[in-house]
Every structure is written in C-alpha cells, then in structure tokens.
Amino acid sequence: MKIELINDHYKKIPEPFRKKEIKKLIDTVLEKIGSEGFENGQINIKYTSEEEIKMLNEKFYNKEGVTNVLAFANNQETPENKDKLVGEIAVCISQIEREAILYKKAVETRLKHMIVHGVLHLFGFDHQKKGEQKEMEQVEDDIINSCLGERPY
User: Fold this and answer.
1) Which pLDDT score, from 0 to 100, does residue 84 have?
2) Residue at 153 is within a domain
3) Residue-range definition of the domain harbouring residue 28
4) Which residues touch 74 (CB under 8 Å, ≥6 apart)?
5) Residues 69 and 91: beta-carbon distance below 8 Å
C-alpha cells in the first residue's frame, strides 16, 4: 500500500507521525483485516487544521464542529482497478492533542488510534450500530496494542 502524507499542520512532522511509521501501522491494519489485493493501492493522509476539518465535517457529513478524523472512501473500484486511490483521511492534530489529555493517552497513541480508525472506515467498518461499534473497537484495540503496547480505550 502506498501512503501519501499531506502536511498542512506541522513545520516539521514529528518522528512517530512520519510516513515510515504510519505505513507500518497501516500495513498492520491491512494484515489484520485481510484486505488482499490492495498492495498497489494508495491512501492519502492529511494533517489538517481545525478550520479545515470543521468545513469538511459540515460539507460532507452534515455535522457541525471540529472532529478528530474523517475518512473519505473512494468507492469507484472495478475488478481490474485494484491499484487505485483507496481513500483519503483528514486528521486534526490539535483535536487529537486535546483528546490525548482528556483520555490520558500519549499524543502518538491517540493519533495512531485515529489513523487506524480512519483506515478501518475506508475498508467498510462502521460504528453506527452497537454490534458494529464493538467489532470496530476490538480491531482498533488489537492493532494499537500490538503496535504500541498500549490500549486505545
């Protein structure tokens, strides 16, 4: 899987949030959920501002306010087009920093948890219903625990 990081937040991206670390994390997600056939696909991740994520949340999800992560799946897949853009994930660093304090987690843990969350959304996971939420949280917990040795919840 190709990962493209788009940086609209940091002057210099901190080491744990750089491409190599994020690619390793996403490869673990893909292995865990068994998403064969997407080896040549691409996911774009954009570190963004509160203003931008708020605008995206309102425009595409009809929800007001700042959020931590948004996922936009590219649902234009055809059987012969597996090397495509899988989707894009917008990550609001300042919101994640606030949540890390609130949940008593390291910023790295919270950021990686939200990237895992976004990737799972790109591959069809959801948390609107209780059963779906429980399944998604279990996958997130397994991945973050195996990668960072911490529990995200």
Assistant:
1) 83
2) no
3) 2-148
4) 84, 85, 86, 87, 88
5) yes
Nearest to 88 by CA among 147, 125, 46: 46
The two structure tokens encoding residue 78: 């055809």
Q: Is residue 132 part of a domain?
A: yes
Place of tokens 């963004």: 48
DSSP 150: S
44: tokens are: 């774009």
Asked if 141 and 153 touch (Cβ cutoff 8 Å), the reply is yes
In whole angstroms, give the CA distance from residue 19 to residue 13.
9
Tell me the C-alpha to C-alpha distance, in Å, between residue 72 and each of 22, 49, 89. Answer: 18, 17, 6
Number of separate domains in the chain:
1
Query: 77 vs 117, which has greater pLDDT?
Result: 117
β-strand pairing of 69-73 with 85-92: antiparallel
Contact 86, 41 (CB under 8 A): yes
13's CB contacts (< 8 A; 6+ apart) are: 5, 7, 47
Number of H helices, E strands in the chain: 5, 4
In a domain, 44, yes or no: yes
For the ranges 79-93, 98-112, 124-138, the lowest mean pLDDT is seen at: 79-93
Domain with 63 in it: what CATH number? 3.40.390.30
